[in-house]
Amino acid sequence: MSKENKKQVQSASTPPGGFRVIAREFMKDRLALTSLIILVTVLLAVFIGALLLNQEQVMKVNLLGRYLEPGVNGYILGTDEGGKDIFGQLIIGARNSIIIGFTITIITSIVGISIGLISGYYGGRLDGFLMRIVDFIMILPVTMLIIVFVTVIKNYTIYHFILIMSAFYWTAKARLFRTRTLSEASLDYVNASKTLGTSDFMIMFREILPNLSSLIIVNLTLNFAGNIGIETSLTYLGFGLPSTVPSLGTLIANARNADILENKTWIWLPAAIFILVMMLCINYVGQAFQRAADAKQRLG
């Protein structure tokens, strides 16, 4: 066989790389591609815009400019009760909410996936001990505990909120990945690796973990969107971020006032639309990444 023929056979038998598989999935699904474009554009606009804005200036109270409608005096989205720029609050608040949601997702995923892998791989007493801890945390009234912490902690900040949320929201991931790891640990490739003397760490994180990539992607995307929603809900109820910290939740919390809810919709509606668009885009992009991960596993 000539060298050219050998190269053709090798290229035909070599599965496409990860980026090519992902690109192919997005090209097949125009809705996911559109969602990805919108998501990237919005994230760039939010983070670049937040860098250009002065938060102190945006949050400065101007009683002479209360409840200005969109377009009046140069305010693109109007002003709120304190005369503060809604557009500036939306940009900075969106950045804060995205950072909060992303950080909580990363922390809880690292903790939950690691504990789930260790528990499912080793089993036995260690599995029982770790799962009892998970069970104990899961039966706690998490919302009430968060409210208590928010009330007790002085000078409550974004960092406190992230730590409190991360302390309780890793347990579902641990249980989910523990179940999948139990089934993976009994397969032939794991037994073969043990026979060859491969370390447990390498088996867990180099062999089992990649086979859970589809589940990880789905879990990450859903949790990212969900954590943004949790921050918004708690802040709306008055137990999230303080009113001095712009976020999507603090903007929507203005809708608790019946007059603002009905007659001054420009204060809360942009944040609600932003959350809706973000949730839909994250969902469609996550589904495309899941299909790409599944295809990559099938192709080897």
UniProtKB/TrEMBL annotation:
InterPro entries: BP-dependent_transpt_permease (IPR050366), MetI-like (IPR000515), MetI-like_sf (IPR035906). One of its GO terms (cellular component) is plasma membrane. It comes from Streptococcus suis. One of its GO terms (biological process) is transmembrane transport. It is found in: Cell membrane. It is a multi-pass membrane protein. PROSITE patterns: ABC_TM1. Pfam families: BPD_transp_1 (PF00528). Its main location: membrane. It comes from the Bacteria. Residues 94-286 form the ABC transmembrane type-1 domain. The keyword Nucleus does not apply. The chain crosses the membrane at residues 31-53, 98-122, 129-150, 156-172, 208-230, 266-286. Belongs to the binding-protein-dependent transport system permease family. Keywords: Cell membrane, Membrane, Transmembrane, Transmembrane helix, Transport. This is ABC transporter permease.
